[in-house]
Design a protein that fits this description.
The chain has about 80 residues and is mostly helical. It contains five helices and no strands. The N and C termini lie far apart (about 25 Å).
């Protein structure tokens, strides 16, 4: 499975979404989405479980796939 950055980049490109458009759909700030798309879950900014769930819903991705890409199991993030 791809890491979070690859998953986000690929899905955003396929759905023709910018970080700003995804931010508007999720309520997550645009700079955070850009960092997640660039650095994944291991960069300087770590996504919360709630943010991962919001991204999964907004991108129509299964939550387990997003959690796996982020390198976590459900409930492991704080």
């Amino acid at each position: 499975m791809a890491d979070l950055s690859q998953l986000l980049q690929r899905t955003m490109r396929r759905r023709r979404l910018t970080a700003q458009a995804l931010a508007e759909r999720t309520g997550i700030r645009t700079p955070r989405i850009r960092v997640f798309a660039q650095d994944g879950a291991n960069g300087p900014v770590h996504p919360t479980e709630a943010e991962l769930a919001e991204l999964a819903v907004a991108l129509a991705l299964p939550l387990p796939d997003v959690l796996e890409a982020a390198g976590t199991a459900a409930g492991a993030l704080s």
